[in-house]
Every structure is written in structure tokens, then in C-alpha cells.
Amino acid sequence: MQPLEALPTAVCQRVEGVFCDVDDTLTWHGRLVPAAFDALGRLNDAGIKVVPITGRPGGWVDQIARLWPVDGVVGENGGLWFYLLEGAMQRRFAQPETERRVHRAALKELKTAILAEVPGAAVASDQSYRDLDLAIDFCEDVPRLSDAEIDRIVAIFEAAGATCKVSSIHVNGWFGAFDKLSGCRAFVQERWSLDLETVKENWLYVGDSPNDEPMFRWFPHSVGVANVRELLSRMTAYPRYVTAGSGGHGFAELVDHVLRQRNEA
What we know:
The protein is 38% helix and 20% strand. It is an alpha/beta fold.
């Protein structure tokens, strides 16, 4: 990983959009960093598209897409994407409701198994707002679990045939082949009729944890906020650049760098 200053001026000057994680990328210690929220608005004012790509639930995605200065949100690790179109909320899902219903029943059984086998784990407090996945809290509202306990949660999900990703706060599991990248690609195709393959050189991705790996691996200009270093041992794909600041402070640092380079052109 290279320091943020190595992100070329030419890249900054042609950036058309920024995809970003939310938890510990726009937030820090559980709170939205004011400078990061301001940075979203400054990107918007500069004509740069902004799309959070998060593991958070559909309920959060609806609120963020309605109220934040963003162009839409991909949530539940790529399982859904919401955006406003002429003032009306558009809601799309990677799976039809009939399939989601079957998967929710299977995830309910997994929840029982995980909570029984991993004392101290808890269902995430935002679970009731989720449509496609099961989120197990390992440090947001519970005392932090050990790496071995997190690994055990992952193993239970995977033994049941579920896809599983670790974020900075939750272990998320779901049935189906979607991830952050597939949801991102579907969103931009629907929203702007863009083939992400043809424009990815002009977009940045910013994240901090293993569930960002599909994005780190695929985008040539990916950026990790400083706290990504804490989870590198769980990753095989890393961001190309890394900020000095952590969480939302690092995100604001990135936006400062991009806009400064554009203004100096």
C-alpha cells in the first residue's frame, strides 16, 4: 500500500465518482465524522458522484439515500440498492422476495446455532431492518470477541453454505452470490446506464475491512483509511493507497487531496 500522496494528480483530475464504505470509513468510534459528511457534500458540489456501498441494512440505506448528499446507496453487501429518482425512492434487490423469504428462514436457524456456539456474540441491533442477511455483532454493542470466536462465527456460516464477510463490527452472512462489487455494478448500470468495467479508471473506492475486498481487488484506484491495517491479516486483497487518518478523518483527508489536485489543474 502506498501513502495517499502517491495517488496521481491525473487520476484526481479525471475522477467522476467515489464509492465508499460507511462504518469506520465515514464514521469513527461509532459516530459519523462531521468532516466526512461535509466531504460528501463537497464532492457533490464539485459534480462528482458519491455512492456509499455498505453492509448496513435496507432501513439505513433508505434513510441515507433520502437525506445525505449522495446519488444512491448499495446496502447489505450488495444485496440491494436504493436511490431517489425525481423525488421518488427506487428500491431494487438482488433476489426476488420469494427467494429472500426462504433464505430468511434458513438464516433464522443459523442465528440460533451461532448464538448457542459462540457465547458473547449477539444479533446486530439493526437486524430488524435487514432484508437479505444476518448480521452478528462482535464489537459494536457487545464486548469485543476474540479472533478465534470471530473465526468460529465465519465457520458456522460457511458450513451451512452461506456467503460470509467480516466487517469492522459485524460478521454478515447470506445465501446467494452477490457482494459489494456485483451490487455496485448493477446500481450504476440501472442508475446511469454505465458499464462499470469501462469507467472504473475514473472512480475511486474507499474502505476499511474484509468485506471491501471485492472492491479493493477490482478498482485500480482503491483507498483504505488508516485503520484498514488492523484487519489486513483477514484479507488477501488490499487497497492501493492508504490515508494517514482513520475512519471518517481519513475519508475527509482523501477528499481534500482529490479536490485540491483538481483545483490546481
